[in-house]
């Protein structure tokens, strides 16, 4: 009688093969295979979410308790102006002394300002305390810029990986701006008016604590002599047209938001404006993830940037055509497609800045780009608001394509600047 085959010992069994990563996701899997990358990304996402929460929370909180949208708008505008001044200074200190030494205390100051704002609103403090408290949140570090700086350091000799990382970071920006405002509005209306601001402060502190503890991926601090010798970003002639393009791109974003809200309100569908705007951000986020894998970087990045901004300008014109039909459904579809043109412009623009600004001042350079973008958003919001109030509502949709054409002109001017062919 034959003996049954004995089972092989577990130690003799072949090792289980790791699950294969889909080919399209392989570039992203490579990013997060870097030790510490998942942790600093998780912390950065938590710390980045308040960027989309603070403004909405402050407006709802102040308008609800003080009964004045004018006061709420003035306080938020003061915070934006303070950010434009303090943000680059914070980034310069991060470049000089390191992310962990500066970003963590700067986040604590910003969180303290947010908590102070909530307390002043809660206990009926004078109006001037609202301005002072919200201005303190300007020390919030540029979390997206610090994350991009880490990727640039990790993959400093791998342009393809840097392209994928920048694509991921752009998608992360869009997702935070999609999820942040609704979360803040929900908390302020379901719980109590100050809850959105307080939640943003907690997320900022917790996320920055996780992010800064990942010291292994932090870019090394350049020697003091190297930092002092590197020219300030604003003195780089090649950077100025890029900042001009980012300013105009910000006008596109800000004017598109206000024009869409006014368009929906004019048709008695103001509640649908948030959904339509979310389609624009989702289109940008999806495009950001796709171009990180499906469209590897080829050719000079300065040429790709100009082409991407020109594409964004064309899609903005399509949005104007959709608005002219009077259909909110067609406008939503057009904004979804238009969003797909925003991400490539932002990804290539940030890549170009990384190749333009000296490594010793990289955070400062990217923060200036974000400052230009935020300034453009404020300008675009004001311009589209004035047009929507004094002219037919659909006329407000002429602002985004006009600004996009100016951005394309500024981006295209980089093609003829001397030295670009040598640098990139």
TrEMBL record:
UniProt domain Major facilitator superfamily (MFS) profile: residue ranges: 238-424
Molecular function in Gene Ontology: transmembrane transporter activity
Name the InterPro entries for this protein: MFS (IPR011701), MFS_dom (IPR020846), MFS_trans_sf (IPR036259)
Keywords from UniProt, A to Z, are: Membrane, Transmembrane, Transmembrane helix
Q: Where is this region: Disordered?
A: 1-20
Q: What is its main location?
A: membrane
The record's subcellular location field reads:
Cell membrane
In Pfam terms, one family for this protein is MFS_1
- State the annotated membrane topology for this chain: Multi-pass membrane protein
Stretches that traverse the bilayer? 45-63, 69-90, 102-125, 183-211, 239-264, 270-293, 305-323, 329-353, 365-388, 394-416
On the tree of life, the source organism's domain of life is Bacteria
Where does this protein have compositionally biased stretches of type Basic and acidic residues? 1-15
What are the coiled-coil residue ranges? Answer: none
Q: Which GO terms describe its cellular component?
A: plasma membrane
UniProt protein name:
Transporter
